[in-house]
Design goal:
With 418 residues, the chain is an alpha/beta fold. The protein folds into two domains: 11-253, Thiolase/Chalcone synthase (Peroxisomal Thiolase, Chain A, domain 1), CATH 3.40.47; 265-414, Thiolase/Chalcone synthase (Peroxisomal Thiolase, Chain A, domain 1). It has 14 helices and 15 strands.
Length: 418
């Protein structure tokens, strides 16, 4: 039993910025989700040839000059782009904010792999392993706090910043950290979410392939197929999503448009295996988040599933979801990785964003590429292949994100109604 969340400080979302394989703004992303359009394409991976992947096509120089892009990292550029877009969406201007009261909390799966692989390959391919050609930018590029730190440097922020290493549960974890820091009074505005540059690291692809967990399909748009009997692994994706979080009283004082309110959350650990998920601990995490929010399972309108398109992972999450929600068809369940692949540390944040417009339009986007439902993944409320409008609308969303080493995160948001 965990204590109820301290409700003295209600925390709300007042803006968000994103880039993902289906677009660089929420409206474009949402339209593609409702249309059932995949964002996965073929991408050349060092030493492995073309692989299905989720690739972003934002313009880094919108908020950075060319030197800054060259000196920094892909993850940093993704974060900078999303942070600027989030502040614009929230109606906040940098010159009107106290920079010491803005915190940056970014979830990541890993950081530094891309830069280290690039330098090692460059030395072997071009410089006869002479380390004098190793870039002097390597250390700041590869420290774990880099993506969040690049944002503070670019925006001139002087409040706290750090990354939250939580494997593929990190997108939720970054948001949760922002909520907690606002409640502690450590900041007045939190830029929180997750980023990933995973497709630039061939080691990520190679690692999943060696585990038998890398997706393969002749049509890359059909490679990510959670819950389908023919699923065979993860489609690696890049991207990012950052939210502007504020205390409700502060948001109301400036007459901000409020996107949603954070109701509850929970992070726990399986404590059992490096890779294989534990459905009992996932179920526990979901139940405790619901309790934390002061709700019952029947009050959840939509579950954004984590399912990554791996045989065991999807099956285990479905066990947890069935145990919590039973045979109810009132709680709809969907999946976003079927559209964009697995964006690792950004996954939870991006997937939540794609579902937030359901508060306004009442639709749950589908899980696509679901041609032959695996009986072990059958869920009563699963939205298959076509978006579904929920009678009575969608007021509460539960967002699942789980990761390696058995870290689980669940986040619950509600439509803000005052």
């Amino acid at each position: 039993m965990i204590s109820p969340m301290n409700k003295t400080e209600r925390i709300v979302v007042t803006g968000l910025g994103l880039t993902c394989p289906l677009g660089n703004d929420l409206a474009t992303f949402r339209a593609a989700l409702l249309e059932g359009k995949s964002g996965v394409s073929s991408f050349p991976v060092r030493n492995m040839g073309d692989q299905p992947a989720g690739v972003c096509h934002f313009e880094p120089t919108k908020y950075q000059n060319r030197k800054e892009v060259r000196v920094g990292t892909r993850a940093g550029s993704i974060g900078i782009y999303c942070a600027h877009e989030a502040l614009l969406d929230a109606g906040l201007k940098l010159d009107e904010l106290d920079p010491s009261k803005v915190g940056v909390y970014l979830g990541i799966t890993e950081h530094g792999n891309v830069e280290t692989e690039t330098e090692v390959c460059s030395l072997f391919d071009h410089y006869d392993q002479d380390v004098k050609y190793w870039t002097h930018h390597h250390n700041p590029r590869t420290v774990a706090n880099n993506p969040a730190g690049e944002i503070t440097v670019n925006l001139g922020l002087t409040g706290p910043h750090y990354t939250v290493g939580a494997a593929c549960a990190a997108g939720n974890a970054g948001i949760i950290q922002g909520v907690q820091m606002l409640r502690l009074g450590e900041c007045d505005v939190a830029l929180a979410g997750g980023v990933s540059e995973s497709i630039r690291a061939y080691g990520i692809f190679a690692g999943f392939k060696s585990q038998g967990a890398l997706a393969a399909h002749e049509d890359p748009t059909q490679a990510s197929r959670p819950f389908d009997r023919g699923r065979n692994g993860i489609v690696v994706s890049e991207g990012g999503c950052i939210y502007v979080l504020e205390r409700l009283n502060d948001a109301l004082a400036r007459d901000a448009h409020i996107v949603a309110e954070v109701l509850g959350y929970r992070i726990n650990s399986d404590g059992t295996d490096y890779v294989l998920p534990n459905p009992e601990r996932q179920e526990e995490c979901i139940r405790q988040a619901i309790e934390n929010a002061g709700l019952s399972p029947s009050m959840i309108d939509l579950v954004s599933s984590h399912a990554t398109s791996t045989p065991q992972g999807d099956e285990q999450e479905c066990k947890a979801l069935r145990n919590v929600f039973g045979d109810s068809t009132e709680t709809l369940i969907n999946n976003t990785k079927s559209f964009i692949g697995h964006s690792m540390g950004a996954a939870g944040a991006i997937e939540l964003a794609g579902n937030l417009p359901s508060f306004a339009d009442g639709y749950a986007h589908a899980t696509i590429n679901l041609d032959d439902l695996d009986p072990s993944c059958a869920l009563s409320g699963l939205v298959e292949n076509e978006a579904k409008k929920k009678a009575g609308g969608i007021e509460i969303i539960l967002n699942n994100s789980f990761g390696m080493l058995g870290i689980n995160s669940v986040l619950i948001l509600k439509n803000f109604s005052g």
